Amino acid sequence: MSLMTEQVTMQGALNKLMSSTDLTREEARAVMDIIMSGNATPSQIAGVATALRMKGETKDEITGFAEVMRQHSSHVQTKQEGLLDTCGTGGSGIHKFNISTASAMIASAAGIRVAKHGNRAMSGKAGSADVLEALGVQITLTPEQASECLNQIGICFMFAQLYHPSLRHAAVPRRELGVRTIFNMLGPLTNPAGADRQLIGLYDRTKTATIAAVLNELGVKRAMVVSSVDGLDEISISAPTQISELRNGEVITYELTPEELGLSRYPISEVIGGDPATNASLIRSIFSGEQRGAYRDIVLANAGACIYVGGYADSLREGVAIAAEMIDSGKANQQLQKLIQTTGELTHVS
Fold this sequence. Notes:
It contains 15 helices and seven strands. It has a seven-stranded mixed beta sheet with strand order 3-2-1-4-5-6-7, with helices on both faces. It has two domains: 10-72, Transferase, Pyrimidine Nucleoside Phosphorylase, Chain C (Transferase, Pyrimidine Nucleoside Phosphorylase, Chain A, domain 3, Up-down Bundle); 84-342, 3-Layer(aba) Sandwich (Pyrimidine Nucleoside Phosphorylase, Chain A, domain 2). It has helices at 10-18, 25-36, 42-55, 59-71, 99-109, 128-135, 143-153, 160-163, 171-177, 182-186, 208-217, 276-287, 293-309, 316-328, 331-349; strands spanning 83-85, 113-118, 155-159, 197-201, 222-228, 241-247, 250-256. The protein is an alpha/beta fold. Helix 5 crosses helix 13 and helix 7 (143-153) packs antiparallel against helix 15. A hairpin with a 2-residue loop joins strand 6 and strand 7 (250-256). Pathway: Amino-acid biosynthesis; L-tryptophan biosynthesis; L-tryptophan from chorismate: step 2/5. Belongs to the anthranilate phosphoribosyltransferase family. In the C-terminal section; belongs to the anthranilate phosphoribosyltransferase family. It comes from Paenibacillus catalpae. Residues 13-73 form the Glycosyl transferase family 3 N-terminal domain.
């Protein structure tokens, strides 16, 4: 069964998917364009998302969806080269604290330009937007303000709800389905500033190599897609983590243990977070040097990976050492204070 791109309909795509036939990249683009343009019914969107999940999403299908979502997004105009994002999929079901947000701050303190993309909590208690707000960061920057923030201090936050207005058409079916679908994978693939370096935490360990291959198709230069054996969408300090690393156009998949990073192993229960205020307090205590042990070490593991992917370390272990230096020197805390001050000034001026 073949669908010509110009003839793609939601019904035709759904029929193809339900017969366990993959969509081509162009067909996936056409389907997503129908959705993003508001021309698909909630039932059609739910049907396609469910059929894709049951069949198993392919590289071409995810790439096609992501390309169209990028086209429909608001964009932050900035130099893209060497720009890092730490946006993950969430959906692990484990209520950890905001590790990738803390890691982004540390990477920025180390000199990497960071365009952090994120949202409010979808499955956990506190998303990156929630915890940054609790820390005192103004999260509702316009694209122009985000660009200015990035230029001034080397980091900005882009609140996904403001940058992907067309995704509202899928909001009702996503909420009513209540299961993870292709839409959960798209946030990390649609950075509004076009970041070309990424650390992506993924809830589904079977998909790390696929997502890394999608990033390559989308023009990302270096990336690590991580999913731990104990179910975290982060690099774990409780169990090995599966990593699919994109470098020089090739994807290599391997396992990484905490010990290989020079870190101790802790029970997963020791990195559990809470509401935004609780997680904000945890991040402050890590950055101030008061919090040691598991909370600090899991941030070091992931921040170290950011520094490695950003090209500021030759190995993951060296990245961890640099991350520790950023905390111990006070630079990570200083960078957080700059973000709070700068976003406040930018939004106040406006």
